Amino acid sequence: MGLLDDLKKQAELVKTQQISQEALLEENVERVEEKMKRTFQYLNDLLKQLAVLKPVNPRVFSLPGLGDLKNLGFAESFIDWRKKRLNDRDHFDSINFFIRWGSSELLVIERDMPAAAQKVRDALFGYRLKFEEEEIKGQKGTATKWRFTSQSAVVTDVKIHAEHERGTLFITAKNLERMGIVDAFAVPAQEFDDALLEEFAKTLLGQPGTFRKYRVAPGARPA
Question: How would DSSP label each residue in 111-134?
C-alpha cells in the first residue's frame, strides 16, 4: 500500500468520524429541544395549579443564628423562556422561573451589642429579606438594644439551561432546600420524562423524591 492510499484511508476515517459526530449532535439537539419544550409546558401548568391551591411548603428554611422560616405558603410565581439560534433554527436556551413562599408570621431578632446587631443586619441583607430595624434606647438616651422584624418569605429561583452538545438539561436552583444555597442538577435529556418531572415538582414543593440523585457541584457547568 502506497502513501497516497494510506492518506486516503485516513481521510475517509476522519470524514466518517465527523459525520458521526454531526449526527450525534443533531440527535442531542432535537432531544434536548423536545425535553425543554415539555418541561416548560409541565412547569407552566404546575404553577397555574399552585396559584389556585396555594399549598404550604413543609420545608423549614434555617437561618443559622437567627431562626427558622417555616409554614410558608405559595404566594406567587413567574415563568418565562429564552431561545437562541442554532443550525438556522430557534431552540430553547433556558427556562427561568421563581416561586415565592411566605407567611404572615414575623421573624423577630434582638441583639444588645452593636457588633452583633451588624451581623444580623448583614445576614438579613444577604438573604434578601425585607426587614425593619428598631433601636431601643436606655435611660441615658443611648442605644441598648436593636430589634429586627423580618418578613417570613423565601424566593426559590430556578434556571433550566439547555446543554445541546452534552444532551443534558442543567438546572440551578437558589433557596430550593436551604436558604441562601444554590443547588445544581445535571439530567440527561433522555431521562427527563414525565415521571422525572413529577420528582422535580416534588422537590420544588418540599416533598420526598428521587430527583436529588442528579445533584452536581454548582460550578460543574456554566449556568
Answer: ESSHHHHHHHHHHHHHTT--EEEE
- The pLDDT tens digits for 115-173 are 999 999 999 999 999 999 999 988 777 888 999 999 999 999 999 999 988 899 999 99
What's at 39, amino acid-wise? T
Largest CA distance in the chain: 103
Full residue range of the structural domain in which residue 200 is found: 3-220
- Count of structural domains, the chain: 1
40-73 CB burial, b ≥16 within 10 A, e <16: bebbeebbeebeeeeeebebebebeebeebeebb
Measured distance CA(67)–CA(83) in Å, rounded: 41
Each residue of 51-87: pLDDT tens digit?
999 999 999 999 999 999 999 999 999 999 999 988 7
